[in-house]
Amino acid sequence: MCGVVGGVSERNMVPIILEGLSRLEYRGYDSAGITVIGSSNKLARQRVTGRVEELAKICGNENFRGLCGIGHTRWATHGGVTIDNAHPHFSNDKIALVHNGIIENYAPIREELKAKGYEFKSETDTEVIVHLIHSLYVTNKNLLLSVKEATKQLHGAYAIGVMCVDNPDEMVCARLGAPLILGLGIGEMFFASDISALLPVTQKVVYLEDGDVAIITRAGYKVYDAHDKEIFRKPNISELSVTQTELNGYRHYMQKEIFEQPDAIAQTLQSLGNSFNTNVFGRDAGKIFKQIDQVQIIACGTSYNAGMVAKYWIEDFAGLECRVDIASEYRYSKPPKRPNTLIVSLSQSGETADTLASVKYAHELGMTNTLAICNVAESSLTRLSKLSILTQAGPEIGVASTKAFTTQLVVLLYLANTLAMTKGHLTSNDAEARIRQMRCLPQLIIDTLKLEEQLKLIAKEMEYKQHALFLGRNTLYPIAVEGSLKLKEISYIHAEAYAAGELKHGPLALIDKEMPAIILMPGNLLHDKVKSNVQEVLARQGVVYLFTDTEEDVTAKCHRVVKMPENIAEYLLPIIYTIPLQLLSYHTAITKGTDVDKPRNLAKSVTVE
Ligand code: F6R
């Protein structure tokens, strides 16, 4: 939520910031702004409501340039989408600041500052930070010191970049509970919410820790930790490249990411190796997996749906009780304190505020065996957890998660089997067979992606629908949930998912000839049960879109049947059945003309509560 980028350089920062902002736009895209310190040592600012593209149009003026600058792309929390609320915010035309996060105690600080004569021009929580820094700077005349003192007074989350006209050669950054990195160039130094913003200028980055305050100049950087001790934070060379974060011929990131799944899964499988091995989860995983007697999964959104699938696998394969909780619920619940619990957090970004808070909460409750399954190396979540493992999906930029979800499922399937091995529930023959079958996934997905033309036809029929119902059983129930989430978030069609057995307990009342029912019916053990549900919908004139690998009497009565690949191992079904539902939502959104990669009101990385 909100992206920040900036830096001090020997060249004009405006194009660098604009490029960085467009790469951060997935984090928020309701307004954007940029400020540079111009040649006359004055703050010059451009802001728009809307997209970075609009901002770039008004930054074309030759005179709008500077060697020191900051930029912001906003996802509104405090205050509506207006120019006044867009960042950067100023104090007395001297200090400028960009912020990602939420300041919870902004109200009393605002009152204090107002009493001192500060005039507020926005409704944001951010504006208190810049005035607070200014109020301290007036006496100490030192930007670094002012930021250090100001951040001590803030409650909440922040990643900030601050500059002052008195010294256009330096900039101060700070983070707590929101991601921030430094980018190291030659004769230039940058900061940003994430590496994607800086890839065109550098791959050398420093990950700041919670509580850090950093000062950057063209020549270098210094970091002070939460105890105000100067600390060396080592630079890392990112393995990401600029091309990985570009569209490369695809129309949308979501489309690119759907079609990258065979590769992303192949990479993920390769990183896991040829056997179920505890070591891939971290050095102590073998010991921890032996100790634990239950699993608690915590996640949000699509990651939560992956967790729901994993519950079936973990209970079935490893015989371990598995709870799955939505992170925003878990963090305020009172779970039993069972130290022998493996806390598994799932997150594409590793920066989701509720997921991070839940892992911290589990630690406070004495449940310290934490494992993060994450797509971003060095994210807050991986650093917070005792054990971690990366999904090798590569950067996911489309707001609707696709390849992160299926690679999470692959790692979770691997985890369930590794736990089963540790608990003596898996013979080495079965283990080998499962690894072999998992290795078929990339090709199975390539085959399933060939269904695209059929899904385009269904998408056309969805265009004028107001509602849709998704049904599935067992591991296909969470996939129905995920399919409905994808459809609603990018095509704005109200979609709901039910465990098919629940149909008679309410949702059947919704069925009529207008209601599309998307039903997942693989030829597995529960096939006959789902078939009865299909009959129930048909008997009430429901419009059935059936996804199945079987052929029988009932299929003839369905409105459309999508023939899925046959002979797929039971535990691979949820991964394979996800693919057509992603394509369906993508093409429905295209048909409806919505903004696929940046759906209204949403942001990719939810770093606020
Ligand atoms: C939906 C979607 C979101 C995220 C959720 C958690 O397509 O992308 O529901 O899954 O915000 O994000 P992460 O996985 O980054 O913690």
> What's the helical proportion of residues?
25-40%
Biggest sheet strand line-up: 3-2-4-1-10-9-11-15
How would you sum up the major sheet? 8 strands, antiparallel
CA(first)-CA(last) distance: 10 Å
Chain-averaged pLDDT: 95
User: Which strand-content bin applies to the residues?
Assistant: 15-25%
Which residues form runs of ≥5 with pLDDT under 50? Answer: none
Number of distinct beta strands: 25
Report the principal-axis shape.
globular
Secondary-structure class: alpha/beta
DSSP summary: helix tally: 20
| Bound compounds | fructose -6-phosphate
Q: If you compute it from the alpha carbons, what radius of gyration comes out, rounded to the nearest whole angstrom?
A: 25 Å
Architecture overview:
With about 600 residues, this protein is α/β, with parallel strands linked by helices. α15 (about 440-450) runs parallel beside α20. The protein has 20 helices and 25 strands. About 35% of the residues lie in helices and about 20% in strands. An eight-stranded antiparallel β-sheet has the order 3-2-4-1-10-9-11-15, covered by helices on one side. The model has no long low-confidence stretch (mean pLDDT about 95). Fructose -6-phosphate binds near residues 400, 401, 605 and 606.
